[in-house]
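Box S2. Input/output pair 1.
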Amino acid sequence: MCGGTVSRGGIEVRSIACFGAVLAAVLLALPLSAGAQQPAQVKRPAPAPAPAARYASQRDTLNQNTVTVISGNPNGTYLYLAYDMSAVLDDGNDLRILPVIGKGGYQNVMDVLHLRGVDLCITQSNIMTYLKKTGEMGPNIENRLAFITRLYNEEMHVLAGPGINDVKELDGKKVNFSDVGSGTQFSTRLIFDLLGIKATEINVGQADGYQMVKSGEIAATVLIAGKPTGSFAKFKLEPGMKLLPVPYTEALEQDYFPAKLTSADYPGLIEKDRSVDTVAVASVLAAYNWPRDTDRYRRVATFIDAFFAKFPEFQKPARHAKWREANINSALKGWKRFPAAEEWLAKNPTQRSPTASVAIDPGIVRAQAAKVAPNDPAAQERLFQEFMEWAKSQSKR
């Protein structure tokens, strides 16, 4: 029982201790009913991801399937082909092609080997021969730099000023070899060396080079790119200016082949129905030869799957005309193919490229052979047959 009471102002109040004990006893005596007595569990929606987490997810998705292709500047053709890759292959989040303006041939190889974030490059096929010979990018370059496909022919353009009628007359003269690190600079050095031409090199853009030829400050400007090129297509001959022929000699046989520039290519530089003999080098799409168990290998392989599967789209009229010279099956002397590309071709033997890998006019070959050996029919025929056999081998795997 509780204790006594306390009188306050004439009212008896039971002690606090006694009241608490009674209340506790009453509560314990009440029946328990879970459904009636316990509060209902309310399901609350999961909190939305924090902005930082959402942005990180978007960033990872963008980077995971984006492939960068380092190309060239608007003077040549590389940039246009890289844009075509983006136009044909972009499909939202699964694959995105990011064209990057580059210096061209030589520098592009430097970038794909050493620059973070560069997956593919467009360069010239003769660079492999050069790098193996010089070793300037380290030993076993053929195991670090792999080709995906041969692309198209890059013709040599030599625009000379008054008084120059033969390319060999550029010996000792000041000549623009285009931008530093460009494929033009790289290949012009090699071709001039093989032809025995020792020119004084300067390096400016083609628009500047044209003005310097026009003013007589330099003897010629050179561009090696797929015809018709953006810059040369805008030029017009000033008095005394001319496109010089470049002879196809035996010394050029390993990495080059005969070609022709026509009035249809450059109506502002070549008279109607006339042409100019020259030489050309193959362009190539290449990549660093990543190990198979890397994300970079996966990204390049994803690109290859889409690129080869949709290759016929590149040879339709909406795309650059130079795509019609490309052949995904063509081998390249001295190069190894990226493994994912080799495997795709092995699994898809019926999907052959519809065009030959080298656009060859036998008449051009014979004409160039006659110039190389003007008084030796036997040597002319040997040169012709050797080159045609080489061209034939390029269309085979």
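Box S3. Input/output pair 2.
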Amino acid sequence: MLARLVAAIAPDDCELIARVLLDEFRSLGRLWSQTAERIAGVVGDWPEVGAFLASLRDTMIEGMGAALRTERIDPFDPGLRRYLIASMGSLPDERLRILFLDSGQGLIADEQLQCGTLAHLAIYPRTIFRRALEHNAASVILVHNHPGGDATPSEDDIEATRKLDQIGRALDIEILDHIIVTATHLHHLIRDRRSGARRVKPASFILRSDAAPEDEANDRACRNAETVLRRRILRRQLVGSPELFGEPAWDMLIDLFIHACKGQQLSMSSLCATAGIPTSSAMKLAQRLCEAGILERTPDIFDGRRTLMKIAPEVAHRLRAYFAEGTE
């Protein structure tokens, strides 16, 4: 089959070229998962063949990706498996790809967010969840490759997935799966773990070792402090405008959110009083929040002198998920 494809470009040498390629890559599947540079390096004496195969490969991968947009994404779907292996299974360095999904697990976007080295890839939660919130994604599938060929997750892979899962729960974004890709295999880091273990409802009590009262109080204080720190980190990631998220802005958002939950409206002047800073500074801050798309202003139809404030719908959705998870 490969010889017939190559014959369209180099009919006289098609058998030789096909044999060189298969000697190097061992199968068509491995060939299609190579980069254009890698293929060109093997068929250097026939540059037109390398360009043709690379173009064919890109067309094939683009078609696979387009097919995913027409159906519900299942992490175990054979089409997704072929697409991931073909597009990143043989890359020379680690890359992180994110599939952003809607509430029906339809594909919103397929993006490569980060690139690492042969054996290391730094994962930045803020980048991942900011893009998820921008896409209004209900869930995401994380995908990264292991260039070494072993799909077994490392301890770092497992720990990073656990932390991302925790952050996702707080923001109401599910980590549907974390898939590790090689040239021939996939490993489903989350789904395999979930399917292999029966869910057990947590017991209503906690076993503790004997400890002095002051030790228990210290442990409880430490856990509470860790919770506050974690939630403040989430708070800074929530909207994507960290320069606006000092305490005055946060107090204004909370006040607006409470009024919205009670079906009440809040004027600009009342909102500025909440901030606890001079009125002129509070009005400038409210203006900046509006320019950032976090707040919205509407005229009061009953009093033309007043301006009513509300939280932008997407931000309100994120705040609802944030506060549903717990308090500060």
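Caption for Box S3: The CA atoms of residues 212 and 321 lie 37 Å apart. The mean pLDDT is 78.
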